[in-house]
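Working notes for the structural subgroup meeting. M.R. asked for a predicted model of this chain before we commit to crystallization trials. I am recording the input and output together here so anyone reviewing the notebook later can reproduce the run.

Input as submitted:
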Amino acid sequence: MRDFPAAQDLSGVVRDALGAGCRILGVERLRGGSKKGVYRVRVDGSPVPSVIVYRWAEGENFWPATGAGQPSADPFAPASGLAPFLAAQRELARVGARAPRVLSSGSTVDATDFAVVEDVTGGTLEELFGTDPVRAASALADLAGTLDLMQRQKSSRYGRMDLLERGGVAPGSSCEQVVLDRALRDLAEAAERDARVAAARGRLARQLDELRDMVRPRTSYGLVHGELGPDHVLVSPEGDTVLIDIEGLMYFDVEWEHVFLRIRFGRRYAALSRPGLDPLRIGLYAQAMRLSLVAGPLRLLDGDFPDREFMRGIAEHNLSEALAALP
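Returned structure, recorded in token form:
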């Protein structure tokens, strides 16, 4: 059983952000996070009634260790911690895309990274789809505008924002090669955990190679979130969309973003689709994404992630889609 922080453990960072006069009334750990803890802290004696605390600590990360793993410069290496969060925050602010405002950030005496951010209280876009379709439709249009802002940004280098900010270079010769390499790793991992993947491994690997060979070179990349589902979009009381879980923000092929958007938004994706996407990249990235959404949940289930049926369902659905996409 994991021991998560209580009110007294978060009081210092909250008072540093809001002032010594504030008093903590309650702490709620929000569901859904797998790499960091997300806490809503209700307060008194402050201009705001609540804040959100992000907490990056070993005890908050449900992902099992995977041995040597990927180089940290890999665009798909695990994105967690204060440095990638703040780099992503700065870039989104620069381009005019909304993320929760940072009130305070740093490390505690036990070297736990944290950020205290504004509490955007309008709920997630995913929730609004079920409770307020009219407001959700307006927010979806606002999200489309945010995506346009992001994807109009161009860089001659691909990679995660924290790497690019410090002048680093992402490994690999191209986005499509990075995606292929990752897909083959995901395929190998999934084959170790599921006999159906193992039986189809050769066919899936050949298909990925063939899809990669059809993609033509590219030298300009757009700004992408990387995991932009409706659960990673908050809606402010004013109706503005606010992006969260931004640590993986990177410059990359925008088709990668659109493959994920299509999976997560389903029939509502039409409002976010844009002309000019490369269908050959879409073909490669869609199959690679399916394999990622098989291997990732199966890996997470090696540990003690609590919402196990949900993760198992993601793996099962995407395995069916990957096998159905075989020629």
